[in-house]
Amino acid sequence: MIIGVPKEIRPGEERVALTPANIAALLKKHDVQILVETGAGVAAGFTDGQYEAAGAKLADRDQIFSSAQVILQVQTPGSNTTNGQDDLDKMKSGQFLIGMTDPLANPGFAQQLAQSNVTGIALELVPRITRAQAMDVLSSMAMIAGYKCVLLAATTANRMFPMNMTAAGTLNASRVFVMGAGVAGLQACATAKRLGAVVEAYDVRPAAREQILSVGAKPVELDLDTGEAEGSGGYAKAQGEDFLKRQRELMTDVIKDMDVVITTAAVPGAKSPILVTADMVKAMKQGSVIVDLAAERGGNCELTQSGKTVVEHGVTIIGPENVPSSVPHHASQMFGKNMENLLNLLLNDQGELALDFEDQIVADTVISHNGDVPHTRLRELLGLP
Amino acid sequence: MIIGVPKEIRPGEERVALTPANIAALLKKHDVQILVETGAGVAAGFTDGQYEAAGAKLADRDQIFSSAQVILQVQTPGSNTTNGQDDLDKMKSGQFLIGMTDPLANPGFAQQLAQSNVTGIALELVPRITRAQAMDVLSSMAMIAGYKCVLLAATTANRMFPMNMTAAGTLNASRVFVMGAGVAGLQACATAKRLGAVVEAYDVRPAAREQILSVGAKPVELDLDTGEAEGSGGYAKAQGEDFLKRQRELMTDVIKDMDVVITTAAVPGAKSPILVTADMVKAMKQGSVIVDLAAERGGNCELTQSGKTVVEHGVTIIGPENVPSSVPHHASQMFGKNMENLLNLLLNDQGELALDFEDQIVADTVISHNGDVPHTRLRELLGLP
């Protein structure tokens, strides 16, 4: 069987779906061929020579789409709504497409694939079970994003993060506040702590308290009823408007003393909740910084503009898009390892992709197959019986 | 006496010469008035209200230049050759001007001040003696620059700095190499170390070895004769071309394995030595990063363009200008404290500036006085008897 890795085409996307190391590992285990588009890894720091040395064959884009039975992408046309359609037109009946498809926000993509009789596997739907951890791209990319957003904040801040006692007096450490203590939030806490900041964090899930302490940050507690804040799969559950209003009131007092606020509260497939209102921004100090990791889903801050850095009431608000792609080498390494692990599960002894729908990982991630959409949740979203 | 703090006008300059805290401290000790230009501290995160609360009077620029006997600037027209001339035209006979003047690169400024009978005090010339440490702006600003350049590198790098062991495999720590272990270089080592990188450093001065170890980095040793590398005042001495050539050969081998190279080898008043040649850049890994803190003096890397970020042979080379100004709050806090300490030395009981040329700090820093240039080194540079 032939597996194809085209170059990513979404504007700004610098990752690649497999690294040379992943390819060497796959070729050792499975009787497959792997085609990589010329230059596919360059933006992530992997040269064509390294791919060839690992056993891949270099090919052009059309060759890959016409000859590979499985196409691997970081951003499939499902998540790349900018210029992904070109690739969708190249797909053929019977092919497999594995990558990120933004399934809950763009369920219609599953239908498009089904119409072309392409089997689509959405990496975002990998279940949060122990066996699937090594394939969980949301976690691995959130880790990168949590690290990088702290650097964006520190680079923009008008002060240093660590405390310094010098001949020219004492400089206070910056106060960093992280909202949302999922993978990204905890990594943000750890990174800000490394840099010497005084770090506090908040999450509606009571279980987050221990996790926040474990990365050296101080949990902020608000007087709120948080009994049912954790939804299935360990993600934060969407909350009612009354709850969010009270949360905002108490939060204003916390936020006004901070130098940096990092928000990471994204609910999969849904618009992000507003945690930082315009009034809270107004109450903040001149020169403080907000990094809104939920910018792409509408943002956790009312004044965030996705993909832009704006200054409002003297506060710089950064709304970065596709943060993992800005650390493309390590992000590709993790993404590629996730992909390699998934392929190890799916490839049978003959080197063919064999889907066992009794396996939760398969059942949860396959969004189109045999000209239909087998996925229960997507069928609901699409209004299919 | 009236002391005036105008807003900085050099493009991109966000610092301010005194903070509200410095002003409160000075007014408590001395019988002086302090005028601050409206909005002077805003870019550094200090509001007009904070200045007024500290006892300063707000004024417009012309008022300050016409009524203050002492003008305090971060960048005087000596270092601000872009649009500083405007201010020079506003200065009056008998006034004092204290700030950075770029004295060794722009000695002619001392003559300009002398012609206007303005007494100029250049903060860059504060001697490196224990008693003057608290006034040493080169050290305090180098500390800021050393911190910030690591953030620039980390934000640009295609990989994370710390090692990470995750469900998606192990990510190696980045390797950071710091060239020049003065204040900036040592702070760069410490900051990269904080972020989790593997840090190595090099300096021609044998004494630097202990200092490099003290901030958690590994000293790189080259097989070179370095007996006379330390000049007066603890700064690196300019080296001969043979020495530098051999240094470059040995260095190529070191550099090719690095993910990040930070160069900080500036010789006061002279063009910076080339430590990283185009050939060395060519030998580096795809996607690695160089930050050249000596960019403004020509750069330590042959391919650096001052004020720009360029990509050459797959390596991103950042040549930042005026780095301390990009952390304006803390930089102003340190600069202001240096300035406050100097004023405490210079102000007498009547709240007047009294220059005691027997004091080394005065003798070393006054570049113009009584219509003449009293400074020995500047007289030499200017060819004056």
From TrEMBL, chains A, B:
Pfam families: AlaDh_PNT_C, AlaDh_PNT_N
GO function terms (MF aspect): NADP binding; oxidoreductase activity; proton-translocating NAD(P)+ transhydrogenase activity
Keywords from the UniProt entry: NAD, NADP, Nucleotide-binding, Oxidoreductase, Translocase
Every Alanine dehydrogenase/pyridine nucleotide transhydrogenase N-terminal domain range: 4-145
Keyword field contains Oxidoreductase: yes
Sequence ranges assigned to domain Alanine dehydrogenase/pyridine nucleotide transhydrogenase NAD(H)-binding in this UniProt record: 154-319
Catalytic activity annotation: NAD(+) + NADPH + H(+)(in) = NADH + NADP(+) + H(+)(out)
Single biological process term from Gene Ontology: NADPH regeneration
Keyword check for NAD: yes
SUPFAM superfamilies in the cross-refs: Formate/glycerate dehydrogenase catalytic domain-like, NAD(P)-binding Rossmann-fold domains
Family: Belongs to the AlaDH/PNT family.
Protein name: proton-translocating NAD(P)(+) transhydrogenase
Species name: Alloalcanivorax xenomutans
